[in-house]
Design a protein that fits this description.
By secondary structure, this protein is an all-alpha fold. It has 14 helices and no strands. The protein is elongated and about 55 Å long. The two termini are 16 Å apart. 33% of the residues are buried.
Length: 222
């Protein structure tokens, strides 16, 4: 099984030097920084990742100011109480991407955020306090209790907010297998995801780097 220093060396050579590689690594927020983010920003980021999925990201990003306007600034209390009739009107609103399923998921996720507020005070506290050595457990919670946050949407949402998480992109998955870190595995299997978590935890212990950086470095080795 490859050691982190060997993986780093491959990525450094692929990107033309350590400085160039470091500039490509994603930022990670501290727990205090994550808690300080208001919950409407979490709902906004969830929705953004959901609408990006299977769509041209640039289109979603260009329309995002209109999304913010249409969805009441993603205030969870407001969006969570949208009526069915309101959702139907939104599905005809040309200012946003008119995907009725994803629009309904936005209300569902607002309700999810509100439920976490009841147990944690703030949704941000759940995200901030979740241990990175079980980040796949947080993925599972987002998938189970949220709407359309399975696959890479949940992890991408966490990455967008600055929560330390790895991603199982095609390149990262290929690198795990190519370098002998994993046998063939399925991202849909919770047991396999736990095995992947163990690998990332080991690489983190070796390197002292955040999971997000390890993930990106792995992606640059294939």
């Amino acid at each position: 099984m490859a050691k982190f220093e060997n993986l780093l060396d491959i990525a450094v050579r692929a990107k033309g030097g350590l400085s160039a590689l470091e500039a490509m690594l994603p930022p990670v927020c501290s727990a205090a920084e994550l808690v300080a983010i208001e919950d409407d920003r979490y709902l906004s980021a969830m929705t953004r990742c959901i609408f990006r999925a299977g769509f041209v990201w640039k289109v979603i990003d260009n329309k995002w100011p209109q999304f913010e306007e249409v969805f009441s600034g993603f205030n969870p209390l407001v969006v969570g109480h949208y009526s069915d009739e309101k959702l139907e009107r939104l599905a005809q609103d040309k200012r946003i991407v008119r995907n009725a399923i994803k629009i309904r998921a936005t209300r569902d996720n607002a309700t999810f955020v509100l439920s976490i507020q009841q147990s944690h005070g703030k949704f941000s506290r759940l995200i901030a306090e979740w241990p990175e050595n079980d980040i796949v457990g947080l993925w599972a919670l987002l998938k189970k209790q949220g709407s359309r946050l399975g696959g890479n949407s949940g992890p991408m949402f966490l990455r967008l907010m600055g929560k330390d998480t790895f991603l199982l992109t095609k390149d990262v998955s290929a690198a795990l297998i190519h370098h002998g870190l994993m046998d063939k595995f399925s991202a849909n299997s919770q047991r396999d995801l736990q095995r992947v978590q163990v690998v990332f935890n080991q690489l983190q212990q070796e390197s002292g780097r955040p999971l997000a950086q390890i993930s990106r470095i792995l992606a640059h080795t294939v």
